[in-house]
Structures are given as C-alpha cells and as structure tokens.
Amino acid sequence: MNIVDVIRTLAGFAWLAAIGFGIVAAVRASRNLTAKGSSMSAVIVLVIAVVLTILGSGLVYVESSERGVVKTIRAGGIRPEALGSGLHWILPGVEQMVPYSISNQTYTMSFLPEQGPDSGEDSIRARTKDGQEVIIDATVIYRIDPTKVVPLHIAWGENYEAGIVRPETRGSIRDAVSQYGVEEVVSTKREEMVQIITGELASSLSDNNLELLDFILRDIHFSEEYAAAVEQKQIAEQQALQAALIVEQKKQEAEQARQEAQGLADAAVIAAKGEAQAILIQAQAEAESNRLLAESLTPALLQYQYILKLSPGVQTIFIPSDNQFILPLPDTSNPQIAP
Questions:
Q1: Which residues are paired to 275 by β-bridges?
Q2: For domain 105-222, which architecture applies?
Q3: Beta strands in 233-297 (DSSP E)
Q4: Number of C-alpha atoms within 13 angstroms, CB side, residue 147?
Q5: What is the pTM of this model?
Q6: Where are the domains of the chain?
Q7: Can you give the pLDDT of all 339 residues of the chain as single tens digits?
C-alpha cells in the first residue's frame, strides 16, 4: 500500500467520523442538550475529511515499473511528458492519470487455447512458397518504450497489444514463411526464417513505440492432409533405404566371394610356381650331379666297373698272352652316362 492509498483510507475514516459526530450533535440537540462540543468535533473532522479527500484525489503514485500518462481537460487534452516513478500531484477533477507498464510483456499465439491470452486456438496459418499450409505457434516478448509512452497512448491507448503486437507478428510470420518451401521451413532454413521475422517485427514495433526483446518460434504443425503425405513419404524413404542396404549387402557378399576365389586362384598359382621351381631345381641338381660324375670317370675306372658288372661270379679268366681282355671294352675316349 502506497501513501496515496493511505491518504484515501484516512479520508474514508474521517468521513465516517464526521458523520458520527454529526449524528451525536443532532441527537443531543433534539434532547435540548448542549451539542456545542459534538458540533465542533464534527466540523473539524469534516474539514479533515475534505482535505484528505482532495489530497487523495490529487496525489498519484507511479510504480517503478510504470509510467503515467496524464489526461486533462485543458488545451491539448494530455500532458506532453509522462510521469516517472514516484509521487505526483494532478488537479482533482481536471486531470486523470493512466498507468502504463514498461516491464517485459509476453504475448503467445498457440494452437493450444490455454497457452494464449485469448480463449480458443490462436496459432498462425501461413502458406509456404510451394503452396503448403503450415500452422505456427509463436511467442513475442516486448515492452513499451519508456520514452514513448505518450505517443503510444495517443495512437493506440491501452489497445496496443491487440492493435499492434498481434497483427504485426502474424503478418511478419506469413511474409517470411512465403519465401521458403515447406521442407526449408521445418528444417534447413528455420533459423534463417526466424531471423527474418525478428528483424521485420523489431522494425515494425519500433515504429509503433514498442521494443521487441525476443521472438520465439515455438512449434510448426501441418494440415492433416500434408502430415499424412509426409508420413507416406517417410515410409517410402525407409523402404528405399532398406532396399539399398540389401543391395549393398549383396554387393559386399559378392565382393567377398570374389576376393576368396581370387585368393584361391593366387594360392594355386603360387603352388604351381613353387612346384615348377622345385622340379627345375631338382633337374638342375641332377644335371650338375651327372656333370660332376662324368668328370670323375676315367678309362681305368670304367674298365674296372665293367668287369665287376660283367660277371660277379667269375673268379678266373684266361686270356691269350697277346690280348689284355677277352672281351672288347667300351670306348672310354668319350664317356657318356646313360640315364
């Protein structure tokens, strides 16, 4: 309770006291009793009541979160400057103060009735660039420019929320939405769209003596027809994605089989090369062995081996005196080893 309320309360009690003293004075006078004291008290209290009433009517208190616009019957009809916070005097019966809050205010337009100031659904229906209807819930946080309270009062009075904030917000949203396709509105361009709305709305409110503090895009809904179409599209995309995954899986299986076959083929080639290399090495070893053996054979050694192979059971051989052997020996001038 501020001082003005206190004065007005005291004025009310003073009027009740004055009436009470007046009644007492009248009763005493009707009984031929002295009423001088009661009458004097009634007059004094009456004067106090009048003074307090005048003070209560002329004094106004402006809260720190308010500014007061003073309407007057004098020329101009309104004081050029709004009253700041504190106690002020206005002429009773001639002037009247209208308080305006300069605190932050919130205005919500929502699909849900309980979230907005108005009963019923109050969301914004807008058309995208490709003709789709979207339903948008939004909140505007704003305040009255403290230096422009009087111009606001002159232009809109206390109807500034319904006259400026609501229509300007709805218009800015519809203008911005119309610049984008529906897919952009709900995904890739949503933040950009919010920035456009914020800029346009801030400029519009500033022209009408208000300050935009924040714009919040709360939600985006679709019409039932479009929502059903989006759902069918998502189902089709999921099916296509599943089919693509299956194809990719088959490709991977085929590639794995190809790599396995290639590995087996490479292993066979390596094995064949190894076997051929082994045969070559063996042949080279045998050839080298034969070469060394051939180099080691002498005619005498060959004759000796020949005799041993000729007859292992022969112990005595008679030969003519003019012949060395009874049988002709093989030609050892160019020895060859049969395979």
A1: none
A2: 2-Layer Sandwich (3.30)
A3: none
A4: 2
A5: 0.59
A6: 3-98, 105-222, 224-296, 302-339
A7: 677 778 778 878 878 888 887 887 777 777 776 666 777 777 888 888 888 788 777 888 899 999 999 998 877 789 999 999 998 988 888 889 999 999 999 999 987 766 656 656 788 999 999 888 899 999 999 999 999 999 999 999 999 999 999 999 999 999 999 999 988 888 889 999 999 999 999 999 999 999 999 999 999 888 777 766 665 666 667 777 777 888 888 888 888 888 888 888 888 888 888 888 888 888 888 777 777 777 776 666 666 666 666 656 655 555 555 555 555 555 555 555 444
